[in-house]
Amino acid sequence: MYGKRMFSLLLSGALLFTLTACGPKQAPPASSSEPPDTSVLAPVEPDPEPVLPYVNPLTGEGCAQDISQNRPVAIMLNNLKKALPQLGVSQADIIYEALAEGGITRMLGVFQSVEDVGDIGSVRSARDYYVSLALGHDAILLHAGGSPGAYTAIDNWGVAAFDCVNGPYEGTLFWRDQQRRKNMGLEHSVLTSGDTIQELLPSYSWLRLEHKEGYTYPQTFLEEGQKAQGESAQSVTITFSTYKTGVFTYDPDSGLYLVSEYGQPYVDGNTGEQVGVKNVLVLRTSVSNLEGDDAGRQAIRTTGTGEGLFFCDGTVQEITWSKEKNSSPLTYYTADGQPLKLGVGKSYVNLVSKSTPVEVA
User: Three-class SS of residue 187?
Assistant: First the structure.
């Protein structure tokens, strides 16, 4: 009996040892003096993007400093094929483009801040309708010459304008780039820069650097996460003339319309990269040959009201525009008369005649 009992005890002990060895290992009891490691259960979250406290009024983008009361700088830009690439255009908050004469176009780049822009140009002559657009922003205008109508507008409308051709600013606020002068010609060689503008404008004691009292820029922007609504518009082609066609192609990866002209990407010579914008606007207005002008200059209406198209987020919708007077900013409205919200980012505004071909695909 005793032998059988001992054998049963030994067999039970062996089975218990076997089950314990094959089962899951038990973690040792946690020390009462040290907390358990919970790093696996609670991964460290990345720091959130800092919320910038101020907003660029021209783009709706956040800013580290309050620049909203600073007068923007508006610069007349050459757009002849032989004068390309332009410099600094990818950092313009708004680009306005319209016919000048002979089928060529010229641009007005508006910068709320020129900090870190680098060289800008080439700078060319003004027209009265560009002066009206600059004045609507209460901007400081930089140009190199101008039509008789532009000079009349600058004088009569009280525009703060700096002229490289008929003023004392060549060699200071502007200079002639010798490489451009050699390869493109004297008239295509005028440059300025963000650093030069920032350094010199405050030295002109007569110049007002902040917006006049009561000035407001009424543009509003889509909230974060909102998308523009409308019919699909992956590209838009605007035929200004037989000389100039502009093409804007939507890039879903960046959410921008990439700009092309003359059959090539529209490139900023400072960066070598193609210009992309969040918003493309086509404003239809009255465009005609300027009466009595033998140079083929244009009369382009910038005040009053008109129809247009708004492209954003790969969509298009019909809009209307309004500009009460030359000193008023352009305002945009949806088809049902509500203020139009632009996408947050840079804008490209095309002023065209009512008959200008605009193809949407």
Answer: helix
